[in-house]
Amino acid sequence: MSLETVVEDIRDEARARAEDIREQAEADAEEVVSEAEADAERIREERLDEVERQIEQEREQALSSAKLEAKQERLSARRDVLEDVREGVEERIAGIDGDRRRDLTETLLDATLAEFDDEDVAVYTRPEDVDLLEELCDDRDGVEVDGEVDCLGGVIGESDTSRVRVNNTFDSVLESVWDDELRNLSERLFDK
What we know:
- Helix content is about 70%, strand content about 10%.
- It is of the alpha+beta class.
- Strands 2-1-3-4 form a 4-stranded mixed β-sheet.
């Protein structure tokens, strides 16, 4: 075998080896590109899922916020209606006159005096009812009208001896009834 033949064989072998290396490099490059494309697709899908979750979360937050705001507005409107009703009731109570006012005031005076044990009692009422209360107290011993209070009517009684104060004003009766009946009133006014 000649030197040329050996050189040619070595060249052929080197070419074949270079071709194998090139093919392997192309295959490796294709695999790297394929993996990179798969990773990119996975990352893109993850980002899309994350964006969709974020959009859904923001939608839920906006919906919850809108529901809460609507609920607060309904409650505020209900509160306003209840305040209007209460003011109307107070006006009607303040407007009670004649025998009805006399009977109610006397009943509240009797209930007030029943809380005291034969003590001297000072009683108070609204300015418009002072004369009425003085008339009701004329035939009662140890009871004296001692001034005026800001109220819708009724009686407040005090005794220095026992340091007791009894509030039997129309306001206190209304407050008690209002608290007891507020739920029923709300249900009647705002029946679902």
